UniProtKB/TrEMBL annotation:
Source species, domain of life: Bacteria
UniProt topology in membrane: Multi-pass membrane protein
Protein name: D-alanyl-lipoteichoic acid acyltransferase DltB (MBOAT superfamily)
Natural source organism: Frigoriflavimonas asaccharolytica
Similarity remark: Belongs to the membrane-bound acyltransferase family.
Record GO terms (molecular function): acyltransferase activity
GO term, biological process aspect, one: alginic acid biosynthetic process
Record keyword Transmembrane helix present: yes
Transmembrane segments: 38-62, 77-97, 117-138, 150-169, 225-243, 309-326, 332-350, 371-389, 409-428, 449-468
Record's GO cellular component terms: plasma membrane
InterPro entries to which the protein is assigned, alphabetical: Ac/AlaTfrase_AlgI/DltB (IPR024194), AlgI (IPR028362), MB_O-acyltransferase (IPR051085), MBOAT_fam (IPR004299)
Organismal lineage: Bacteria, Pseudomonadati, Bacteroidota, Flavobacteriia, Flavobacteriales
Subcellular location: Cell membrane
Keywords: Acyltransferase, Cell membrane, Membrane, Transferase, Transmembrane, Transmembrane helix
Length: 477
């Protein structure tokens, strides 16, 4: 059941009225949320609902043991819990990757006895809810959670339906506070949530899905295209990936707002980032923040005696984890490795912690006019590693871009109306880049006729450019 489907609208309407009219206590609301979340998950992956329930039960039990224990016992319970979660993730997502590469290694040495790969189905959302579980256990170990929540509340945190498929990866402490009191209907939250859902639908259905009608055929015939067409395809996919993933996040946040639950943002206008560090502060914030806290920070402390070399090592390991998190393929690993290497000039100049202050004016500053296009092109090229099927395709695609045919006119048709829709999205986001989302306060000080007229235009565009429901790119991770 996709968030952008009619079946989800019906599902959410029923939940909405039951949540606010029938549930008289916070406990009743939380139980309803848990039931709804499991029903929602079953529509995606019915065969794995038992796995997520079992994992939730085990990690909740382990969390209690960590809280009660001290010294070595506390550390051992924590290690067991983290191992329990990781072994499932490694089995379902990475087992065949290791087997295939082990077989390749045997082949290099002329050995014929090879291990068989397994026909494994990847449980939907396992990368997202696994990190929630591990974060919960580590937060208990580090005394960041003062009290153990009820099992119902913890289970809601793990399986919360707007986030289970593609995040954000919330921290336990912040999320669980939402569940402690009864949520009353709020007209302002309802209005704000609907606007954010509308903007997410626009980005997903109007921008991302229509770009996909270009990039899909382009990637299938990439070997016949010239360098300029391949470069345009990389740029379009970068925008598509952003519109698709951030569109999902906007819908998830908007749905949560309506239910009186605040979840963390996942994007901060990354298309306008001004350097590598600025980009990663804006893109997939919940994942990069999670890895920064639980991977990069401990590594940087352990490597601090090695100065800049230690910091570089910690960053590269951290981004290798980012790449590997996305999938058991070498092109994801290389994506992470290159992302880490791109930080080296910033670290060497000692500008790692400096944040770029946006001007927040209609006309970009001179530094923005220089830095934003460079960063945009850089990450458009890096995102090639996301849509390729293997490293061979990546190498051939890059060879095509960096050839003399780059200076030719693209030999692939691109619909003008899709370019106009992309420009509309980017202009609105540029104008509102100091707001939570692009239409949050757009025309707020203008007449109600202009404001509502604009909303109706967006709704009209959603229906006009709507294609058959397409899945979200990040659901595969």
């Amino acid at each position: 059941m996709l968030l952008n489907s009619y079946s989800f609208i019906l599902f959410f309407i029923i939940l909405f009225f039951a949540y606010f009219l029938l549930c008289k206590t916070s406990k009743a609301q939380n139980i309803l949320l848990l039931i709804a979340s499991y029903i929602f998950y079953c529509t995606w992956s019915f065969e794995f609902i038992a796995l997520i329930i079992f994992s939730t039960g085990v990690t909740y039990f382990v969390g209690n043991k960590i809280k009660e224990a001290a010294g070595n016992a506390k550390r051992n319970w924590m290690r067991f819990g983290v191992f329990f979660v990781l072994i499932q993730l490694l089995y379902f997502k990475y087992f065949n990757f290791f087997i295939e590469n082990f077989n390749d290694l045997l082949h290099v040495f002329g050995m014929q006895d090879q291990l068989n790969v397994l026909k494994l189905i990847l449980p939907i959302g396992i990368s997202f809810y696994s990190f929630r579980m591990i974060g919960y256990l580590l937060d208990i170990r580090n005394n960041k959670l003062k009290e153990i929540p009820s099992f119902i509340n913890y289970a809601v945190f793990i399986a919360f339906f707007p986030c289970i498929i593609a995040g954000p990866i919330d921290r336990a402490g912040a999320f669980l506070k939402n569940l402690e009191i009864k949520r009353a209907f709020s007209q302002s939250q309802f209005s704000d949530g609907l606007k954010q859902i509308l903007w997410g639908l626009f980005k997903k259905l109007v921008v991302a899905d229509n770009i996909a009608t270009i990039t899909g055929p382009l990637f299938e015939t990439y070997h016949t295209l010239n360098g300029s067409a391949l470069f345009v395809g990389a740029v379009l996919y970068f925008i598509q990936l952003y519109a698709d993933f951030s569109g999902y996040t906007d819908m998830a946040i908007g749905i949560s707002k309506i239910l009186g639950i605040k979840i963390q943002p996942n994007f901060n206008y990354p298309l306008f980032a001004q350097n590598v560090a600025d980009y990663w502060r804006r893109w997939h914030i919940s994942l990069t923040g999670w890895l920064t806290e639980y991977v990069f920070t401990p590594l940087s402390i352990n490597f601090r005696d090695y100065g800049k070399y230690g910091l570089i090592s910690a960053i590269i390991i951290n981004f290798l984890a980012v790449g590997f998190w996305h999938g058991a393929e070498w092109h994801y690993v290389v994506h992470g490795l290159v992302s880490g290497i791109m930080f080296i000039p910033i670290i060497w100049r000692g500008k790692m912690s400096k944040k770029i202050k946006s001007e927040h004016t209609i006309i970009p500053s001179l530094s923005e006019m220089k830095n934003i296009p460079i960063t945009f092109v850089l990450f458009s090229l890096l995102t090639v590693l996301f849509f390729v099927t293997d490293m061979e395709m990546a190498v051939n695609y890059y060879k095509g871009i960096f050839s003399l045919s780059f200076f030719q006119i693209p030999n692939f048709p691109i619909q003008k109306e899709i370019v106009l829709l992309i420009l509309l999205m980017m202009i609105l986001e540029w104008l509102q880049r100091d707001k939570e989302f692009a239409i949050k306060e757009l025309f707020a000080k203008r007449s109600i006729i202009l404001r509502w007229g604009f909303y109706y235009v967006l709704i009209f565009l959603v229906f006009l450019f709507y294609i058959a429901p397409k899945g979200f790119i990040y659901a595969q991770f």
